[in-house]
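Hi U.,

Before I forget, here's the chain from the pilot set. I'm dumping it here mostly so it's searchable later in email.
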Amino acid sequence: MGGQLVSAATYPVIQALPVEEPVDELMAAVVAEARGELKPAEPEEEMPAVRPSMFDLVLRRPRLLDRILREEGALPKAIQDLASLSVVGLAVYGLVVGASAQLVRDRLIPSSFFASGLPAVWMPLAFVLAFLGAICICLPSFYFFTQLSGLDASFRMVTAQALRGVASTAVLLLGAAPFYAAWVLGNVVGLFEDVDTTLQVGMAIPFAVGLFGVGAVYQAFRSMVDVLPVTHQRRGNFVRRMVLAWGALFTAIAPVALYRAGEWFGQWL
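Structure:
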């Protein structure tokens, strides 16, 4: 063997050793992974007899949600569940921010954005309308970006993935709401003085948390690269570029929508 003497005692051991990949193939795989051209294989979760709630899927079982959102027949129900979860999470967080504004409104300047009307009433409406309204405005562009990237996803599938990003954000906002409420209580008892900054941070938190929603959408599309039909080949990590385009467009529209919705509702409620 290779000019070396091999005894009968060592030959079975040598035969049992694993065969290594050629160095050139291994280095090519490392380079491809560094460039984002290789998708690491992830085990696919088996479909249970009873489908978990959408809250559980979004929070704890994203790979199972990936599988559900790849089935065209399951998309109508999934879209309804994702929209409902988004409404609940955004409304609860908006209620926390609005109630906080009412608790400290005697320390706000009269021209403050938070001083008009009853913030505890109009803030939940403003959050829900701004985020879901921005999704509705962006959906045609989202579909165009997806087709441009070479992924032949249906408009219904694009809608489900867009709502998945908002639902992921809404679920995380439910977890962030108690911590924000504790910060506001610190303002109420006098531990913190700048109430305007506290409320402005409350308006900005959904957009910071939304980065995790963008990450969830990115991972979902990466899992579908080998499943969806590809209309034309793209170089590099085209999924990342596509999702970044989604996020940039939504970020440009949603804050303006939130400000305008709050301004309008504040005059009437």
